[in-house]
Design a protein that fits this description.
alpha+beta; 3 helices; HIT-like (chains A, B); homodimer
């Protein structure tokens, strides 16, 4: 397992809007307009599986995931938070942290499932307006994590 | 947040084949014939979000998830492990631990996405034959976790 894989998109690019980073992890906001407030906690080096990390590294990664989750719950009051480490297409460890809302296009299905309804444009616009402040709150929480 | 919610299916029933449990967590094998070796790590009490748990409880839950993941990687050699805590339909904390294979019906899409091909009956039968021994290996790893 090399530190970087030149063929891996998450080794080459941030993978979204950079919000915070340290030597081991970065947090980006996903470019997913239908799911505002969707962040990813991405390992800086190229590792495929969660169990490839040692306990301390997993605890650090999960502390960052939880810090993001807490800010999303406080600022957006989602119906549910969805967490996932999948990586079938990009086997570079990253956690999806997704706030879900009863009006979102896929709720209660996972965002990878079938759309249940058209997106609610007014709700999306209202949440999109919160994103710059949300990014700052996420970065501040990660500094403290 | 009460300890049990009589309306919650994961408060009323194991939610799959019971494989292991202690006072705080249980591990079941999911009744998903298309995804053999799919386990769930389920909190015994009714809590919706991962960040509702304190750090020690999260570390314990994740140690169980990782123990299951390690057994699946060793015994099944999947293409990828998928981990997820979603709970939109059943907001009772549970982690999905899903071994994924290049021949499975949905790979590389998430199992909640669209089927990519018919299931490979021979591969499913081969893996199903491993499940009793896999359950025992999972239970043994959880005893040691």
């Amino acid at each position: 397992m090399s530190a970087h894989d030149p063929a891996c998109p998450l080794c080459r690019e941030p993978g979204g809007l950079p919000v915070w980073q340290d030597a081991d992890w970065r947090v980006i906001r996903a470019d997913e307009p239908a799911f505002p407030g969707f962040y990813r906690v991405v390992l800086q080096r190229h590792v495929a599986e969660w169990s490839d990390l040692d306990t301390a590294a997993r605890q650090r990664g999960m502390a960052l995931v939880v810090a993001v989750e807490r800010v999303l719950r406080e600022k957006l009051q989602p119906a549910k938070i969805n967490l996932a480490a999948l990586g079938n297409l990009v086997p570079h460890l990253h956690w999806h942290v997704v706030p879900r809302f009863a009006d979102d296009s896929h709720f209660p299905q996972p965002i990878w499932g079938s759309a249940q309804r058209p997106p609610d444009a007014a709700a999306l616009a209202r949440r999109a307006a919160l994103l710059p402040a949300l990014d700052r709150a996420v970065a501040q929480a990660l500094d403290a994590a």
